[in-house]
Amino acid sequence: MVGMVKEAEHAAHTLAMQLQFVPVTGPAEITDAFSTISRERTDALCMFPSPMLFTEWGRIASIAADKKLPTIYVAREGVELGGLMSYGANLPDLSRQTALYVDKILKGAKAAELPVQQPTKFELVINLKAAKALELSIPPTLLATADEVIE
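Structure (tokenized):
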């Protein structure tokens, strides 16, 4: 997570944007986090990966939509639940890669000796219904590069 924060800070600096991190350690803190976001007049939200919040993406997408807050997720599930867009590793492909490692380990390979792998397939998913509700126009060039557009 530290690496992601540093990358986000670097990108924000390059784009002359101001970041505000609102850490959430559990589902009970989501409402307070959105209060902070509203109070600070945040323009957009980027959801960092969090297994603890994955099951809350529907709730988060709903609150973000109510607050007219464009939100990007790290996985398509956030978009399927009403979020604006996602860019991240393709989770089914990641699961297949994991299954290959499990197979090797079950056949006697030592986990510590297997090379560390990174995701190889990434996808951009855009929800045009969410964009319309947010009164946003998605550039045709971005739509053309999307792996999937939900209408």
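The first strand starts at residue 45 and ends at 46. The radius of gyration is 18 Å.
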